[in-house]
Amino acid sequence: MSFFSLSDAEDEEGEEGEEVENALDVPLTNEQLDLMNAAYQHVYETNETFQALIAELVRASAKLPPLSVNSTEAKRRVGRILDCSKRDEELTDAVERLWRAEGAWPIEGIEAGPFPVTLKGLPFFANGYCEELKAYVILGVGSNDRKLCLQSMPSMKLTGATTMKKTLFQVYCDTGILFLDNYAEGLATLDVLRGYVRKCPKFEYEIEGELGETPVMAAFHSAASFLENLGLDVTEAVQNMSFAPNNKDAIFFHALAIFWPAFNDYLANQSPPIFTFNKMFEMFGERGAANLEQLPDDVFMPMLHLLVDEFQDCGANTISKNDTKKEVRIKLKSILARAKKLKRASSIKLLTYHGSKGLEADAVFLVGDCAQMSTSPHRNMAYEQANLGNPGDPAPYDTAQGQETLRLAYVAITRAKQHCYWFVEPAKPTKGGLVSALAGVQFQKPFFEDLRKPVKLS
C-alpha cells in the first residue's frame, strides 16, 4: 500500500527552507503534481461539464473584462497613464523577448505585433491580435521572471508595469483583450478560448480570501484538503455552499466537486493503490472502525508516526506573520556576514513567528506586524458546516483567524527572556474588522518604549 504524502524541500540555494506554517500548505512534490495533472487531463477529456467549467475559469483569467474608470483599481492607476505610455514600447519589447526566449512566441492563431493602440489619446502597444476572437493580446511575465525590472527604470518591475498596463487597457480600450502570462500554456489557453479541446489548460487561480494566485492543481488540493480536515466530504460541502451571482469561485468549487472524487478514484486504480492521508483517515478513522480492525499491526504500526504527524490543525494561512526569512536575510546581510567572520553565525537564528514556538533567547528581534490580511467566504461556509465557531457568527473562520493572529504575536514576543525589539511600520487602520497585533499594542504601558521617529512627508 502506498501513501500520497507531503514532504519538505530545501530551497534552490540548498539553504534551510521556510518552516512549515501549516502542514496542509506544503508545496506538492513533482511526483504528486504529475499524478494530479494526469487525473486532471483524464477528467478534462472525459467529463464535458468539467471541461466547460475549466473553460469558464480560463476565460475569467485570460479575457479581461471592461473596467469602470471609477473602480477602485482604476482610480489607483489612471493618474499614471502618461508615465505608462512613455515606457510602454520598452515594456512591450522586453516582455515579448522573454516569451521568444522560451520558444513560446509567436503563438498559432495570434498575429504577432506590436500593434499600436491609442488609450485616452496616448500611444500604447499590444503584443498581438487574435482575429478569431477579435481581441488584442497582452503578454505578461512568467512566474520565473517576476523579479525582472525595466532596463531604463530599475525600480519598476516588469510585473508591476504590466499590471498597470492591463488596467489601462481594461478602462480605455473598446476592443477585446486577452492576457497571457504562462509561457508554456499560452497555446493551450488560446485553444480553450477558441473552443478547441486538445490539452487541459494549466493556469493560476486565486480563491477569494487567499493571499495570491496558485496553479489550479495546488488550489484544488488546498481547498479540498481544508474541507476534508474539517471532517467534511468535498462534494457534499460544495453542494451546501452558496455564492453570490457571477462569483467565479462558484465555478471553481463546482469543478472541484467533480475533480476531487475522480482524483481519488484515479489514485485508487494505480498499482499499487495510492491514497491521500485524508482518505486514509476516512477509511480507518471513526467512520471506518471496521476497516481498522482488519488491518494487521505489522502493516499499521510502522505508519503510525506518519499519521500522527499528519494530524495537524487547520492553521492560519490568511495571516501575514512577518517578512519572509529570505527578505530578512537580505536586510541583515552585513550583520550575518560579520557574525560568520567572527565564527558566531550560530548565535543568530532566523525563524518565522510560528517556527519560534518552544524556543527562547536573551534578545529577540521581531520584523513586521502580525496581521489578518483577508476574509475567506468559502472557509467561513466550511466552518459553519463543521459546526465550528460561536452560534450565530456569520464568519466563524475569520473570527478564528483574528484570534490566531493575536496568539501568534504573543508566541513571538514571549520568546524573549530579557529584551524584545519589534521593528514595524507605522500602525495602519485595519479594514473590515481585520485584526492587527500591532494595532492592539498599548504603548503607554511602562514595559513598552516606542523608539519610532515620526516621518515628515514632503
Structural summary, described in words:
The chain is α/β, with parallel strands linked by helices. It folds into three domains: 2-46 and 203-310, no CATH class; 61-193, no CATH class; 319-440, no CATH class. It is 41% helix and 14% strand. It has 17 helices and 14 strands. The chain has a four-stranded mixed beta sheet. A hairpin with an 8-residue loop joins strand 8 (204-205) and strand 9 (214-215). Helix 4 (81-101) crosses helix 5 and helix 7 (216-229) packs across helix 9 (248-268). The longest helix is centred in the N-terminal third of the chain and has 21 residues, at 81-101. It starts with a strand and ends in a 35-residue tail after the last strand. Residues 1-24 and 309-318 have low confidence and may be disordered.
Task: Describe the protein's topology.
Blueprint (H helix, E strand, L loop, with lengths): L1 E3 L25 H17 L1 H15 L9 H6 L3 H21 L9 E9 L2 E9 L4 E5 L9 E2 L2 E5 H15 L3 E5 L5 H8 L10 E2 L8 E2 H14 L4 H6 L8 H21 L5 E3 H8 L4 H5 L3 H4 L3 H7 L8 E2 L4 H7 L1 H9 L19 E7 L3 E2 L4 H9 L10 H18 L2 E8 L35
Parallel strand pairs: 1-10, 4-7, 12-14
Antiparallel strand pairs: 2-3, 3-4, 5-6, 8-9, 11-13
